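Sequence design from tokenized structure. All designs in this work follow the same two-part layout: the structure record, then the generated sequence. An example of the structure record is given first.
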């Protein structure tokens, strides 16, 4: 009899407590995460931070600088989506990264159209974005907005290279290699994929032809929409890249698509002798422990720039950071 009363008492104590626990929304799958990115882009076009999409304390950076969410940077000037879209959903960490294009500017916000004036044309820019999703809301948003070079008085002098966004859009879509599914039995863990991606950064910085270079024989690298390396493995093994870059730091691996073997990272390339830093986003396709294809976009930033998400020590370090 005592045992029955004891069991009944436990029932009345623990069952109500369990029922009172807050309901945690189920994790997003890859399609769900990609949809968050689409909604984020739509929100920028509308210049509206909706409470049903964003956490009230959502943190936002653009090009390494923390800004008010919704009123500045691309949030102020975005006018449309571009045609190039490359998603890297990370189901394990509930993050999603994106590399693509967008339209910026055109008619000024709030301005009345002049019927006799020629309509202002938007500018195409390249973007790299990471979002963090917690309980159905975006809690972190960081992005690179890579704009064509210009001066306050007008367009910048002509460059021998096309604008990044223009070249990226000419690619049409992510190469089919990036969209191929890795057989489940061959899928590496998230941390294993991050480690392989980091071998590219380590190999480039200390290139002497004697390092570990896990590239397939057909590996190529595209940067800012243009083919830059035809044979990754041979180039690294030649040691000809020595002293190309002084330091590769703040290596933040922010999204990993294990299903497709795609690894997305942010980082900085410092060139000490010319006081120059590239801020970049890079995607590695990894198959059976080897990098098969690389796609990157980058722009110049102030020398020694921080990502806005790292401490000073992390930002100056060559150690990888696996962002969760």
């Amino acid at each position: 009899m005592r045992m029955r009363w004891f069991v009944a008492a436990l029932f009345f104590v623990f069952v109500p407590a369990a029922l009172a626990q807050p309901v945690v929304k189920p994790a997003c799958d890859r399609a769900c995460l990609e949809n968050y990115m689409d909604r984020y882009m739509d929100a920028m076009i509308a210049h509206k931070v909706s409470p049903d999409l964003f956490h009230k304390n959502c943190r936002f950076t653009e090009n390494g600088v923390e800004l008010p969410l919704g009123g500045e940077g691309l949030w102020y000037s975005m006018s449309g989506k571009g045609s190039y879209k490359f998603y890297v959903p990370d189901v394990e960490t509930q993050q999603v990264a994106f590399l693509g294009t967008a339209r910026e500017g055109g008619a000024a916000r709030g301005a009345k159209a002049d019927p006799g004036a020629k309509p202002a044309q938007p500018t195409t820019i390249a973007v790299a974005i990471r979002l963090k999703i917690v309980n159905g809301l975006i809690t972190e948003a960081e992005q690179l907005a890579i704009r064509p070079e210009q001066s306050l008085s007008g367009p910048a002098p002509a460059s021998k290279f096309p604008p990044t966004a223009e070249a990226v859009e000419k690619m049409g879509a992510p190469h089919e290699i990036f969209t191929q599914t890795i057989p489940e039995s061959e899928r590496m863990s998230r941390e294993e994929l991050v480690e392989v991606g980091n071998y590219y950064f380590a190999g480039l910085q200390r290139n002497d032809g004697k390092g570990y270079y896990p590239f397939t024989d057909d590996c190529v690298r595209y940067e800012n929409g243009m083919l830059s390396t035809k044979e990754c493995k041979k180039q690294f093994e030649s040691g000809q890249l020595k002293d190309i870059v002084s330091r590769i730091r703040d290596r933040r691996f922010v999204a990993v698509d294990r299903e497709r073997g795609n690894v997305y990272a942010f980082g900085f390339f410092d060139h000490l002798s010319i006081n120059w830093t590239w801020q970049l986003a890079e995607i590695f396709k990894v198959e059976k422990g080897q990098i098969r294809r690389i796609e990157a976009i980058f722009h110049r930033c102030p020398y020694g720039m921080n990502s806005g998400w790292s401490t000073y020590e992390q930002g100056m370090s060559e150690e990888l950071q696996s962002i969760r």
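Confidence is low (pLDDT under 50) at residues 10-15. We note this feature because it recurs in several other targets discussed in the main text.
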